[in-house]
UniProtKB/TrEMBL annotation:
It comes from Vigna unguiculata (Cowpea). PANTHER family: CHAPERONE PROTEIN CLPD, CHLOROPLASTIC, PROTEIN SMAX1-LIKE 6. InterPro entries: SL_signaling_regulator (IPR051650). This is Uncharacterized protein.
Length: 60
């Protein structure tokens, strides 16, 4: 649930210049970015040989 809330907040910040977002609707990009911001997930990705910052840059 915290990941969904972070992704909704990220989406609201980026969509302030137009359009409204539904409370339950979250774009996949913002959801994935919120997962990557999680410290534990970042560590898991690092152990698997990925850098979460590289994945975030690719998404953006």
């Amino acid at each position: 649930m915290p990941t969904i809330k972070r992704s909704q907040a990220n989406q609201r910040r980026q969509s302030q210049h137009g359009g409204t977002t539904s409370f339950l609707k979250v774009e996949l990009k913002h959801f994935v970015l919120s997962i990557l911001d999680d410290l534990i997930m970042s560590q898991d990705f690092a152990e698997a040989g990925f850098r979460s910052c590289d994945i975030k840059l690719a998404l953006l």
